[in-house]
Amino acid sequence: MARIVQKYGGTSVADVERIRCVAARVKKCHDAGNDVVVVVSARSGVTNELIGKARYLNPAPNDREMDMLLAVGEQETIALTAMAIHAMGTPAVSRTGAQAGILTDPAHTRARIVSINADNIEAALRDRNVVIVAGFQGVNAEGQITTLGRGGSDLSAIAVASAVKADLCQIFTDVDGVYTADPRVVPDARKIPEVSYDEMLELASMGSKVMQARAVEFAKKFGVVFEVRSSFNENPGTIVKEEIASMEDVVVRGVAVDKNQVKVTVSNISDQPGTASRVFQALAEAEVNVDMIVQNVGRGGRANLTFTVPRDEAGRAKKAVETALATIGGGSVDVTNEVAKLSVVGVGMRTHSGVASTLFTSLAEKNVNIQLISTSEIKISVAIDLDRADEAVRAVHEAFGLGSGEGDRP
Length: 410
Ligand code: ASP
Ligand code: MG
What we know:
This protein is of the alpha/beta class. It has eleven helices and 18 strands. Helix content is 34%, strand content 27%. The longest helix is centred in the N-terminal third of the chain and has 25 residues, at 63-87. Residues 10, 41-42, 47, 73, 135-136, 150-154 line the site of aspartic acid.
């Protein structure tokens, strides 16, 4: 007998038929003698629909009321899931975030989990209930409902798994696991059996949007091993865990692409101490997430700065830089260039050489121009033309020998 936390995302509980499938899977796990805690998202589309309604009535809805509203999505799912399990003759009880003891800080719409008092869950498990917890929500010290930010039910699941000391945490979603590249773009992409937290973070925060990054960070911090797998079949998924030595044998674990980046070029700025500081301070104040940065040495006391920002922050970035430029002796800013950020990720890079050269050579062979480069210990990223991205990822995937040849997908 084991203690298992299963999380089902929005597409896994999209309608009553899907909820029935989830109930059957949960029942099977419970029948095998396990303690089962289930964490569910809202049905897919529901959270967006609620946000749409709120914005229709008020372009800047109050954060407390927003949480009051958004928590409804998950509350619908926990009750329906419990009812579906009851109909199969298995005892189950639903819990809102507050009832499950999930205490958060006061920050409405982006709360952090402070602690989980699992007494209530434990008591229900002792009575052999399946416990169904609403993801994405908690309660603050004042008793107000809070939510954890988009995709937050992943975080709920990991945190609950840690609190109840689960033997296994399964994140059920609509993909079979984490792949060496997006299988829709790279036909021979392979499912990765095991990946380290750090690799998962790099792969998940770009393109392969399998899981909320905060949830992975939490799992890393508290050592929660979890599996990402599909609720639509029985295939084993990808295990995400602490790095082990043999993980370094593979140089590159996967190739990720982020197609939501825009290149910002700030030209003809004064080449003096403090210029970059002013520009990036203005961007920080405007809450723009700056990514890859390059500065070119100037001529005649002038310089150019280039960096990337998420596409939907480009307008804000331009305004912020323009304001800053006015106070530091002028210059111009251009944000027209849409780019893709392609990254190769792997802990093996720390101990193998030649990764950059393989990457750059494979792009050169396809005549893909590299516009910006950035590196970290386990990642090399390049900004390239958006419309060359798919071709580039296929070439890079092949250059690192990541393909299976035949593909191991069903
Ligand atoms: N329902 C929430 C969202 O759509 C939380 C989640 O699904 O993880 O962001
Ligand atoms: Mg999700």
